[in-house]
């Protein structure tokens, strides 16, 4: 196809706006064919493999394919249309089949083995030797040593799992987009913040309807749950959200069968590869050694957190009963009662500080942190993206050396998957004397600007933005010359959240908050009095929040720590048992949380959700180094320690094991102490 944007040279920018579904199908077909040809040449047994004649041609061919596929996947996630979805799903089958074929290619595997056994391997730099070792490991974990029927079945499983995961994600997106509540009586919206009402009014006008339109998108759902005085309205929204994509709604969007299929496929995949269960298979590429270690870690943390969670719930129930006349605290009352208790205890609410966190000010403050900590310069880049409101940035060293580009897509909308994430379009790579710089996408789902004013962020939104910027920096500050050792391709999954969670800590520092706040009308930074209230409330209900995350993590690990799949009844029973063990809040029996748990069923976190808490131990301990610095009493933005973090953690990516990178930065192994202290769960105050 002439002028296909996805076939642009690897060092050129993609013309996103010009991409059509037909471009996607044509480009992926052409690039898969090219990659197959490159594999065929590399696997030729008459070729004596070395880095230049073996690895480099493979990287060059596969890089163009994975870049095009990354762009297509990103557009499918942020600009979904029926035609784009159809093209994406068609290509997904081809890409999965190619990946499986390559992972099962015995000729290619044999060439890697030849290189590993040759004198040339011993002459490779440590990073390249590690890439060869990781490739051999991944071949084995991809079933290359299987034969006959087992080999064929393994390939089928890979293709089926990709398709089922994609359908799971589509069902959640469609169920979310399909639901709305039309409100004509404004009294039902009593308590709902003005900007949320304004957005709901605009949503109704878009559909040529009077009144207000409420949705299950987070910028609408969360403020309604936190502030609507109408208990009936809160219950309506909670019931809709808690039963997304399950048997209680549209049968075509029910994820029950898909959950069963995924668990069965994953268990069978593990068995074929000689592992007792999917968790054991997944942990081959993690810092954690086995499921028992993960379960022990989670239960130890639960033991520390549960007394604080009980205290949090007792206080919330007492307040709800005494002050809100809520004798029984239902799940749809929790966010509302929590906000009222926060206001009463700390004399502030999220809505009170929200006008100070205007989008331009927050970005200015974020860039200031990045620049000071890591000796960077962040500038706007004149590059067209897929939407006019998507921002393009150029990241440079303070001396002006280009490090990479970042696209930021902030706002929630129809056809865009919920949540926040970072993806990589192009890796850093050294080709001769030329450095190919990385390109990353940062995606959020915040409330869009209203009435010509800048978008307003909650402090939680600010934390999310800092979190995702940590992921982006992990890719953009890489000094690794070979894509096979890049952060997103070879850092252990349970360490990948270290930079992101590390960055969150700066959102609580007075000097940083001053720099990233400017009132929407006056331009004044957040007053010290409000900051003190914000900080005092930092660990508000941290016990309840911690056991909730442990609940998700235990559930995920246990359902994947089975020799066979589970039916949906057993899945729900497992969740109920986990809640009995660690939870203090118990959802109604009709709640269907697993059906919307995209992280583990469609987002790559299967048998890996524990990674958030595991990495939180690492990130809290890493941040403690800044607290211990000589200038910490004035400012934790210590450039000396920041440069060490950049050098030992961010810049090395996956060039060495994450445990070694942490030790190089901290000088010791991780400790849980900082996490407990940061969460307000280290002292006797119960």
Which labels suit this protein?
five-stranded mixed β-sheet; 9 strands; 686 residues; 56% helix; 28 helices; alpha+beta; Glutathione S-transferase Yfyf (Class Pi), Chain A, domain 2
Structure description:
The protein is of the alpha+beta class and 686 residues long. Among the domains are: 5-145, Endopeptidase. Chain P, domain 1 (Glutathione S-transferase Yfyf (Class Pi), Chain A, domain 2), CATH 1.20.1050.40; 179-243, no CATH class. It has helices at residues 21-42, 51-78, 82-103, 106-117, 119-122, 126-141, 148-178, 194-206, 218-227, 231-242, 256-272, 278-282, 291-324, 334-346, 350-353, 359-374, 459-476, 487-490, 498-504, 510-515, 528-536, 542-559, 568-582, 598-602, 611-627, 639-650, 658-666, 673-678, and strands spanning 181-183, 212-214, 376-380, 391-397, 402-411, 421-426, 429-431, 434-436, 439-446. The strands form 3 sheets. A 5-stranded mixed beta sheet has the order 3-4-5-9-6, sandwiched between helices. The protein has a two-stranded antiparallel ribbon with strand order 1-2. A two-stranded antiparallel ribbon has the order 7-8. Helix 1 packs parallel to helix 3 (82-103), helix 2 runs antiparallel to helix 3 (82-103) and helix 22 runs antiparallel to helix 23 (568-582). The chain is globular. The model has no long low-confidence stretch (mean pLDDT 96).
Give the helix/strand layout.
Layout: H1 21-42, H2 51-78, H3 82-103, H4 106-117, H5 119-122, H6 126-141, H7 148-178, E1 181-183, H8 194-206, E2 212-214, H9 218-227, H10 231-242, H11 256-272, H12 278-282, H13 291-324, H14 334-346, H15 350-353, H16 359-374, E3 376-380, E4 391-397, E5 402-411, E6 421-426, E7 429-431, E8 434-436, E9 439-446, H17 459-476, H18 487-490, H19 498-504, H20 510-515, H21 528-536, H22 542-559, H23 568-582, H24 598-602, H25 611-627, H26 639-650, H27 658-666, H28 673-678
Parallel strand pairs: 5-9
Antiparallel strand pairs: 1-2, 3-4, 4-5, 6-9, 7-8
Helix pairs in contact: 1-2, 1-3, 2-3, 3-7, 4-6, 7-11, 9-14, 13-14, 13-22, 17-19, 19-25, 22-23, 26-27
């Amino acid at each position: 196809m002439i002028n296909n944007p996805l076939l642009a040279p690897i060092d050129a920018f993609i013309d996103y706006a010009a991409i059509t579904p037909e471009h996607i199908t044509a480009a992926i077909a052409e690039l898969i064919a090219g990659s197959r040809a490159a594999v065929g040449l590399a696997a030729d047994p008459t070729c004596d493999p070395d880095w230049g004649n073996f690895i480099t041609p493979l990287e060059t061919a596969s890089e163009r394919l994975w870049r095009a596929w990354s762009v297509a996947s990103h557009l499918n996630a942020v600009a979904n249309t029926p035609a784009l979805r159809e093209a994406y799903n068609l290509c997904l089958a081809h890409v999965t089949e190619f990946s499986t074929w390559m992972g099962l290619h015995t000729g290619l595997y044999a060439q890697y083995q030849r290189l590993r056994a040759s004198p040339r391997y011993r002459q490779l730099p440590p990073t390249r030797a590690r890439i060869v070792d990781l490739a051999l490991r991944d071949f084995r974990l991809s079933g290359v040593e299987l034969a006959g029927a087992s080999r064929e079945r393994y390939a089928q499983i890979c293709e089926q799992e990709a398709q089922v995961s994609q359908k799971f994600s589509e069902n959640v997106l469609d169920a979310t987009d399909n639901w709305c509540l039309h409100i004509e009586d404004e009294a039902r919206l009593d308590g709902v913040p003005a900007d949320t009402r304004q957005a709901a009014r605009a949503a109704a006008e878009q559909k040529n309807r009077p009144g207000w339109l409420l949705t299950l998108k987070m910028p609408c759902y969360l403020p309604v749950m936190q502030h609507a005085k109408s208990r009936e309205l809160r219950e309506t929204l909670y019931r809709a959200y808690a039963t997304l994509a399950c048997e209680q709604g549209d049968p075509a969007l029910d994820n029950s069968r898909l959950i069963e299929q995924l668990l069965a496929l994953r268990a069978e995949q593990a068995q074929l590869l000689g592992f007792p269960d999917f968790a054991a298979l997944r942990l081959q590429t993690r810092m954690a050694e086995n499921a028992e270690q993960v379960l022990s870690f989670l239960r130890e943390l639960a033991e520390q957190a549960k007394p604080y969670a009980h205290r949090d719930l007792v206080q919330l129930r007492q307040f709800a009963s005494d002050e809100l006349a809520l004798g029984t605290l239902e799940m749809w009352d929790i966010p509302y009662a929590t906000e009222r208790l926060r206001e009463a205890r700390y004399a502030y609410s999220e809505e009170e500080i929200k006008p100070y966190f205007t989008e331009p000010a927050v970005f200015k403050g974020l860039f200031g942190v990045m620049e000071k900590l890591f000796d960077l310069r962040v500038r706007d880049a004149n590059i067209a993206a897929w939407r006019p409101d998507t921002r393009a940035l150029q990241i440079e060293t303070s001396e002006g050396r280009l490090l990479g580009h970042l696209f930021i897509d902030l706002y929630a909308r129809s056809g865009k998957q919920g949540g926040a994430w970072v993806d990589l379009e192009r890796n850093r790579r050294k080709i001769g004397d030329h450095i190919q710089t990385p390109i990353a996408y940062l995606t959020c789902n915040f409330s869009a600007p209203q009435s010509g004013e800048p978008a307003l962020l909650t402090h939680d939104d600010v934390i999310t933005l800092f979190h995702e910027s940590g992921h982006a920096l992990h890719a953009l500050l890489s000094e690794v010359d070979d894509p096979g050792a890049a952060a997103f391709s070879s850092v252990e999954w349970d360490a990948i959240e270290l930079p992101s969670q590390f960055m969150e800590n700066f959102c609580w520092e007075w000097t940083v908050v001053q720099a990233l706040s400017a009132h929407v009308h006056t331009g004044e930074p957040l007053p010290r009095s409000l900051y003190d209230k914000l900080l005092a409330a930092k660990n508000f209900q941290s016990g309840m929040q911690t056991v909730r995350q442990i609940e998700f993590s235990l559930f995920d690990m246990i359902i994947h720590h089975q020799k066979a799949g589970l039916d949906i009844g057993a899945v729900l029973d497992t969740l109920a048992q986990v809640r009995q063990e660690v939870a203090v809040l118990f959802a109604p029996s009709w709640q269907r949380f697993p059906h919307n748990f995209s992280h583990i069923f469609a987002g790559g976190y299967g048998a890996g959700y524990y990674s958030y808490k595991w990495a939180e131990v690492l990130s809290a301990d890493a941040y403690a180094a800044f607290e211990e610095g000589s200038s910490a009493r004035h400012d934790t933005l210590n450039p000396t320690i920041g440069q060490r973090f950049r050098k030992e953690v961010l810049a090395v990516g996956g060039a060495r094991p994450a445990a070694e990178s942490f030790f190089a930065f901290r000088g010791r192994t991780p400790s849980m102490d900082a996490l407990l202290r940061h969460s307000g769960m280290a002292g006797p105050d119960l």
